[in-house]
Design brief:
With 357 residues, the chain is of the alpha/beta class. The chain has two domains: 226 residues, Alpha-Beta Barrel (TIM Barrel); 115 residues, Beta Barrel (Elongation Factor Tu (Ef-tu), domain 3). It contains ten helices and 18 strands. Strands 1, 12, 13, 14, 15, 16, 17 and 18 form an eight-stranded mixed beta sheet that branches. Strands 8-7-6-5-4-3-2-9 form an eight-stranded parallel beta sheet. InterPro entries: Ala_racemase, Ala_racemase_N, PLP-binding_barrel.
């Protein structure tokens, strides 16, 4: 069985690196754990870092986190479905909100549970995922800031999550100005401007982050050390907190060109023949993962001589060229992962999970 391994020492190194940076700039931050899909083995390692705040998009995962550490602040990071409201009040200390009706229902449920629920109002800043339109924010805030059981503790925004809109100084200054407008009009302090995610970190490192941005939610940078502006690894961070180990289940020297009449495969893909490859062969291996577990484009081979060819539902096909390393059936190949690849693997019950200490 293929296995995903998390390297505890590398995770700790990345966490300490980020924590030093945020503390130096007086920025609060929390870890986004939605990548881990509620796996207690890995959540335990995250909580052991000493984190005080955890973000997730699944209330069931927050329930698991609260059972593991009742003191950690849990944050639900997408608009709430109505049927989830009782659990959100019970297991999330904070939630991101954009709908008046839902906030009113959260208020009623918070009163029933005798709790004070904190919310961050998300503002649309151009990426067109969740968020209140800026010209509607004052009226929106006026409708919710005195609701019983509800405390507005922040304004926030997402970038690069849907259409790839990147954060800029101008957009983040605009987000900070919304806070100033609300505080001036309502004489009410809003502690956080949550404009920081992994994609915003380069602005911080380059001294381009507006002073008003004082809260970050970090997932990808922690687990992959990735600068999303350059697609390179941040200096001083690890890009291989996770590694996927896969076993070779077949290895044969085969033609490089398929033979026969070609049609779409089950994934809807069509292939064109490269006539320059006629008559050539390559050592081709089948690995014990497939599309059910991961999209091959999110795999990064540790061996530069290996080329990922494609995948079917349960098998991944790679070319080994001349097989310089003399791989054989039963040998294990290692891969780094991109974020979406790790998310798929972590959501697969067919992939083993281990912690390396």
């Amino acid at each position: 069985m293929a296995v995903l391994k998390l390297y505890q020492e590398k995770l700790l190194h990345n966490y300490n690196h980020l924590d030093r940076v945020f503390k130096a700039h007086d920025i609060d931050w929390g870890i986004v754990t939605k990548l881990l899909c509620g796996h207690e083995l890995f959540l335990k390692e995250v909580l052991a870092l000493g984190v005080k705040e955890v973000h997730d998009s699944r209330v069931s995962n927050l329930k698991t986190i609260k059972k593991m550490d009742p003191e950690v602040q849990t944050v639900y990071i997408k608009p709430a479905p109505k049927q989830s409201i009782p659990d959100i009040i019970q297991y999330a200390d904070v939630s991101f909100q954009t709908e008046l009706e839902i906030i009113r229902l959260l208020s009623e449920e918070a009163m029933r549970q005798n709790k004070q629920h904190k919310i961050i109002i998300m503002i649309e800043m151009g990426d067109l995922r969740e968020g209140v339109m800026g010209d509607e924010l004052v009226g929106f805030y006026e409708s919710v800031f005195e609701l019983p059981g509800i405390s507005v503790i922040g304004l926030g925004a997402n970038f690069n999550c849907l259409h790839g809109v990147m954060p800029t100084q101008d957009k983040l200054i605009q987000l900070s100005l919304y806070k100033q407008i609300i505080e001036a009009k309502f004489n009410h302090t809003i502690p956080w401007v949550s404009g920081g995610t992994s994609v915003t970190i380069p602005l911080l490192f380059n001294h381009q982050l507006p002073a008003g941005i004082n809260h970050f939610r970090i997932g990808e940078a922690l687990f992959f050390g990735l600068n999303l502006f350059t697609n390179e690894t941040f200096e001083g961070m690890h890009d291989d907190v996770f590694e996927l180990f896969t076993e070779i289940i077949e290895l044969t020297e085969k033609p490089m060109i398929p033979s026969g009449i070609l049609a779409e495969n089950p994934s809807g893909e069509s292939f064109e023949i490269d006539e320059s490859l006629y008559g050539k062969t390559s050592h081709r291996a089948i690995l014990d993962v497939g599309l059910l577990d991961i999209n091959p484009k999110f795999l990064i081979s540790k061996d530069e001589d290996i080329t990922v060819i494609g995948a079917s539902s349960d098998m991944l096909i790679v070319e080994l060229g001349e097989n310089k390393h003399n791989y054989k059936v039963g040998d294990v190949l290692r891969f780094n992962l991109r974020y979406m690849g790790a998310l798929s693997v972590l959501n697969s019950r067919y992939i083993g999970k281990e912690v390396v200490r």
